[in-house]
Amino acid sequence: MENFILFFFLIFSVVIHEYSHGLAAYYNGDDTAHLMGRLTLNPIAHLDPIGSVLLPFLLAVTIGVPFGYAKPVPINPLRFRDYQKGMIMVGAAGCTANFIAGFIFSLISGLTKGVSSQVFELAAFINFILCFFNLIPIPPLDGSRILSVLLPSRVSIVFDKIERYGLFIVYALVFAGGFKFLVPFCSSLVNHFSAIAHLNF
């Protein structure tokens, strides 16, 4: 039952991540996600068979915590009113949404007890992991979108070429434990925010 609840929170977390990308793009003048029916919180529009089902299952079995992703929301940067500003805002939007969700779930964890507290603690942890994992500057993660805009144009062109191999690099690093450094950091954030809620309320 607990795994089912965590899977629900994972789906919620990846959906708000992608929805936030689409909303930021729409705000910057690109309505591609809206026209394709992806500017919605309906999970059916965002779920990916591998990233939203298979990968979370494998990681839940191997490391005990489900983690995954949804289908990327389509954007057309050429429609942004300000290309650089639009790319940075869209790249940061999903991570910002997950950080806010992680913060809220941490507070709820500090205000509840027993199993409920543990479930919200893990929900917060999942959101913080999604936030900071996606900020890593490896294509196609969000951090690479932001970095690509900030790099000199010649360097950016070379950097963008890595994207064709990026997903394989990310998968390899995930299963090799290359991102384990995020675990203690995200856990400390959860504990810090939940402690604030517990002490003040």
Automatic annotation (TrEMBL):
Topologically, how does it sit relative to the membrane?
Answer: Multi-pass membrane protein
Cofactor or coenzyme needed: Zn(2+)
Q: Where are the transmembrane segments?
A: 49-69, 90-110, 122-141, 162-183
Arranged from A to Z, the UniProt key words for this protein are: Cell membrane, Hydrolase, Membrane, Metal-binding, Metalloprotease, Protease, Transmembrane, Transmembrane helix, Zinc
Q: Where in the cell is it found?
A: Cell membrane
UniProt domain Peptidase M50: residue ranges: 116-176
Q: What is its main location?
A: membrane
Q: Which GO terms describe its molecular function?
A: metal ion binding; metallopeptidase activity
Q: Does the keyword Ribosomal protein apply?
A: no
| Lineage top rank: taxon | Bacteria
GO CC terms: plasma membrane
Q: Which residues form a coiled coil?
A: none
The UniProt entry's GO biological process terms, in alphabetical order, are: proteolysis
Q: Which CDD domains match?
A: S2P-M50_like_1
> What's the family?
Belongs to the peptidase M50B family.
User: Per its record, how is this protein called by name?
Assistant: Peptidase family M50
